[in-house]
Design brief:
The chain folds into 2 domains: 8-118, Jelly Rolls (Sandwich); 144-218, Orthogonal Bundle (Arc Repressor Mutant, subunit A). It is of the alpha+beta class. The chain has helices spanning 5-8, 17-26, 80-88, 109-118, 120-146, 149-160, 172-179, 183-195, 211-217; strands at 28-32, 37-39, 47-53, 56-61, 67-73, 95-98, 102-108, 167-168, 199-202, 205-208. Helix 4 (109-118) packs across helix 5 and helix 6 crosses helix 7.
């Protein structure tokens, strides 16, 4: 697979020549199948990664088995908690799972730390990656604290569709994990949305009929997945 490194590194042309050569030499690609768990809470992070294709879910699970999604990592994004784990030499405090067939570009931990010490452009890239994910995480915390559950669900549904895709292949339990509430609450609110002609429900599928009205319903904060 030929990588377009300038898409991953916006400052690629101005990066130090030695750094670019080392990135090409030491980075590597791994493919993960849908639902594959590839980092478990408590493990050490041996690699920093950027998602090339697919998506990664970072989540926590309670002792009672309740799960909540912290955030999702989309193409050309990296994982905030992985970045912190590497720099602080601490275990990963969550779990990471491929949501679909996913391709990652990985960088060995020892090289990441070495480049942070030696190259200004790598420090800039690393910090920018962290700040982008941190902003999304803060937005999600704000939504959990300040939004009603129905607003969070409306925002999540409206944010998850596009002009080309107007449906989600998700169960009510999966939506509940994304927005941080119980499945029963999600089922009740989705039924209300269906009665208002905002969505159409079928087994394992949610079709968005009126994304504009959903966006208005979830009016306080954009959903940060």
């Amino acid at each position: 697979m030929k990588l377009a490194l300038h898409k991953i590194f916006p400052q690629w042309e101005s990066m130090e020549r030695n750094l670019k050569e080392e990135i090409k030499e030491y980075s590597y690609i791994r493919r993960f199948h849908s639902s594959q768990l590839f980092v478990i809470e408590g493990e050490k992070c041996n690699s920093f990664y950027v998602v090339l294709e697919g998506s990664v879910k970072v989540f926590k699970t309670s002792e009672l088995g309740k799960e909540i999604t912290i955030y999702n990592v989309s193409p050309m994004e990296s994982c905030l908690l992985t970045s912190f784990s590497i720099v602080n030499n601490q275990p990963f405090i969550a779990n990471a799972q491929a949501l679909k067939h996913t391709l990652l570009l990985l960088f060995p931990k020892n090289k990441v730390l070495d480049w942070l010490n030696r190259y200004e452009s790598w420090r800039e890239f690393y910090l920018n990656s962290c700040s982008s994910q941190l902003f999304s995480l803060i937005s999600k915390i704000e939504s959990l604290v300040f939004q009603r559950v129905d607003e969070r669900i409306a925002n999540f549904l409206a944010s998850a569709v596009s002009s080309r895709v107007n449906s989600l292949q998700m169960t009510h339990s999966e939506v509940a994990r994304e927005v941080g509430t119980a499945r029963e609450v999600v089922s009740r609110i989705l039924k209300e949305f269906e009665n208002e002609d905002l969505i159409r429900l079928s087994r394992g599928k949610i079709e968005i009929i009126n994304p504009e009205r959903l966006s208005v319903h979830g009016k306080l904060y954009p959903f940060a997945g």
